Predict the 3D structure of the following.
Amino acid sequence: MKVKFFIFVLLFITSVLAFTGYESKNIPHNKNMQKPEIGIIETTGYKNKSYIHFYDSDLNFLFRKENNYASMSESWDDPICRDYILFSIPRGKFGTQNEQCIVEYNITADKYKEYDMDLYSMNELAVSENYVFGVNTLDFSSTISRKTIGRSDEKPLMKEYPDEYIFEMIVMDEDLYCFSLFIKENTTHFKRISINDLSVMEDYDITEFGSPADMLKAGSDIYFTNQYTNEESIPSNKITVFNSEKKSFSQIKLSENFPNDILKHNNLLIISHYDRVQVTGNKITLYNLSEHKTEKVIDLKHEAVQCILKDNFLYVLGLNSVSKYLITDNDLKEISTAKVDMQTGKTYFYLSSVFSCN
């Protein structure tokens, strides 16, 4: 599959990295310190520098913070923010990607804390009520590392998963759920892992359903989007549903290809359509769970790189902007759009992710 080929390329690159380290510091940009609601990370892999742009809930710009981290977060490894505490992965500069920490940033206090996970080139993070998790893949085997939140000096609990590439990881109901590629068999798996000892509790071969991208739990059902089918380079237009009680799988067919982010608002599934490989796509599907039908497919005026929910609003990150939409029963109403004042010059910066501060 196209996504699997892309994964193998990333895996090869990360397995030959050189390793060094550096210290970070905070560099304030201005003094407008009104409490923010929305944050956007702007980053680069060419130098140890990233920016976090902060906005109020109506997308009025408030202030910007600069730090000394390179390749900070990506759209597929969403930063996690709870009550103004942000967790993200800085990978380091292109070609070396030498970081081995997950960063905790206290937005209110403007302070950073590093959790040394003893893993280079992490590709995904997850956060539970008590723990922070990171995963990497080197020499074609993945390792998950876990630390207690607030105890950055703690020795991490680590577990290796041989011949496996774990490429998505999320905590739902205090269990760790993962997507992984078994390299020798060229099969894709969906698994549930204990947050206590990192042992595998459930493991399912989901190759027949296609290449998964994002997942969401609603009641006893877990929904995950499929970017490609199990045929080489053939896009998918389906969502897979796993019933955790019956241990059964089914699929929902949509009218658009490349389902990516998946969110739930009341009785609606909100699905973005964005091809992670080609970096294109600007559509949103509203799917009615009660009536089992698509209410509407919406063409946005910008790319749907990443989507987040906050209250009754959907925030969608584009390549150089963020937009706010009011969610109704069968439509999205654009409320506001903010162009991000990005860095210019010889160094290429890009918007990697959007998050809600609380």
Observations:
- The chain is about 5% helix and 50% strand.
